[in-house]
Design goal:
The chain has about 260 residues and is an alpha+beta fold. The protein has helices at about 15-25, 25-30, 40-45, 55-75, 130, 160-165, 190-195; strands at about 115-120, 125, 135-145, 150-160, 175-180, 185-190, 200-205, 205-210, 220, 235-240. It binds ligand MTE and molybdenum atom.
């Protein structure tokens, strides 16, 4: 057996528990694990020994995946996120990505193709005019980012459930995954994909979706935190294999309900 050299930084149990509680911030989680969580508790809960940072990392991931299941159980597919009057739209609406505004991806509308694969009857490539030809709807909802800001915006496009029906998606599958024109990727649970407010988004505030907000197409879900809403989507796939996500694979909670 290879022994790892001891870490130089002291292992801070309190900070770990704080981090675990931060991961469990949302109300659904609070009901399950109140403020009484301790390092020993975390260890009991996950069956992981808390001996070094890697094992703690592993335990926190387990808590987070456990939470995905809890949030999945608690998610009510019929409950609607609040909507707002247009007078409450935040102007200007904030931009956010894992890079700065100077690196916003510029996608060419004419050559844009959307690939739809996986557990769907009609695996094929879509063009932008084909997406625009589908029935459109819009909604004014609040976007909440874990970085500590929220803003109200107006998004328009195709109900994602209509799109999934059109491509003959197997709605008994667990996940819908997304690949974006930057290196971003994410995935969502099927009940959220079918939620009536989940929108394959083509417009922002009555205008063609601008590059900074994800031209030519993003997925907008008022029931999920900002990082679950992929911009510049190039590929959609339906799968039973857990696809993870850009931030999720770095420790953000996967379900990411808001
Ligand atoms: N392709 C892509 N989608 C993304 C991101 C990204 O970096 N790349 N960032 C996410 C995060 S963390 C947030 S808060 C929202 C920001 O969307 P906005 O620029 O429309 O406010 O996009 C999400 N979707
Ligand atoms: Mo975000």
């Amino acid at each position: 057996m290879i022994l790892k050299p001891p870490r130089k930084t002291a292992f801070d149990g309190d900070a770990v528990v704080k981090e675990a509680l931060r991961c469990l911030e949302q109300p659904a989680r609070r009901q399950f694990l109140s403020r009484s969580l301790t390092l020993g508790g975390l260890s009991l809960l996950t069956g992981c020994a808390m001996t070094d940072e890697d094992s703690v990392e592993h335990a926190l991931m387990k808590v987070s995946r456990f939470n995905d299941r809890v949030q999945g159980w608690l998610f009510d597919p019929d409950r609607l996120a609040p909507t707002y009057p247009e007078s409450m739209i935040t102007r200007p609406f904030p931009f956010n990505a894992y890079y700065g505004e100077d690196e916003i991806r510029q996608i060419d509308a004419d050559s844009y193709r959307l690939e739809v694969t996986g557990m769907v009857a009609d695996k094929r490539i879509w063009t932008l005019p084909e997406l625009h030809a589908m029935p459109q709807t819009d909604q004014v909802t609040r976007h909440i980012c874990v970085e500590g800001w929220s803003a109200i915006g107006k998004w328009g496009g195709v109900r994602f459930s209509d799109f999934l029906a059109r491509v003959g998606a197997d709605t008994s599958a667990k996940y819908v995954g997304f690949k974006c024109a930057d290196d971003y990727y994410t995935s969502i649970d099927m009940p959220t994909a079918l939620h009536p407010q989940t929108l394959l988004t083509l417009s922002y505030d009555g205008q063609l979706l601008p590059p900074k907000y994800g031209f030519p197409m993003k997925l907008r879900m008022p029931t999920k935190l900002g990082y679950k809403n992929p911009k510049h989507i190039q590929a959609i796939f339906v799968t039973n294999t857990y696809p993870g996500g850009y931030w999720e694979d770095q420790g953000y909670n996967w379900f990411g309900g808001s």
